Amino acid sequence: VCWQANVPxxxxxxxxxxGYIRLQLKEHVVVEAHPDNQAxxxxxxxxxxxxxxxxxxxxxxxxxxSLKDHGHTPYPVLVFRALQEWRQGHSSPPGNYRxxxxxxxxILAAMRKREGNEEVFEDEENFEEAGRxxxxxxxxxxxxxxxxxxxxxxxxxxxxxxxxxxxVLAHALREFVAREGRxxxxxxIPDMFSDSERFIQLQNIYREKAGQDVEQVGRxxxxxxxxxxxxxxxxxxxxxRRFCKxxxxxxxxx
Length: 254
Prior knowledge:
Layout (H helix, E strand, L loop, with lengths): L8 E7 L2 E7 L3 E3 L18 H13 L5 H4 L4 H13 L9 H13 L3 E2 L2 E5 L3 H13 L7 H7 L2 H4 L7 H16 L15 H32 L9 H9 L5 E3 L1
Antiparallel strand pairs: 1-2, 3-6, 4-5
């Protein structure tokens, strides 16, 4: 009866310290999955113009920076500069362990040498941080298979009056991905060894791009709701923003 009425049913049985729980429901959707070891969404391989310009300007200025500024340059700049140099001698970005190790060595070799002792490097924590980040941030920007399955699901392709908010959002995201060839930028960057000024500049670039992506998806959501005769207030902007931010980690269980 609950299955036919689309009502979740939880069955609990216990005898002292022994018990079990059964949960029956047709569909359960997850937006905030809180995955372990989440890789930063930096898009260094697909930097949009504003990000590319900022990273490039910082990279070009590094040779003339003071030691303090050199040692407080955000690690995405160091990885980006190494990738630009890598592309000059390779047809594809680093893809395996050996190539990533080579890139890491290239990054660490750019550390400043101590004045009067060319055999000793300065203690530049940002370069060490960049070396550790290579394995997670040097990766092609793709739509994860789990998210792709959701976007290709018939429930995301065809929207009806009975479609839940999740599938209306998935439908709007589907159109965004078809047009842009990518997921929305999350707008979140990890903590890193950097001076406050440049960290805030970098953070604002990612936040601004994320805001632009949310606006595009939000416009489509409003159009869909209007076409269904539902109020555009049915799905709030905060919900659109969360959906875009977590778009790499969407899950559907049936």
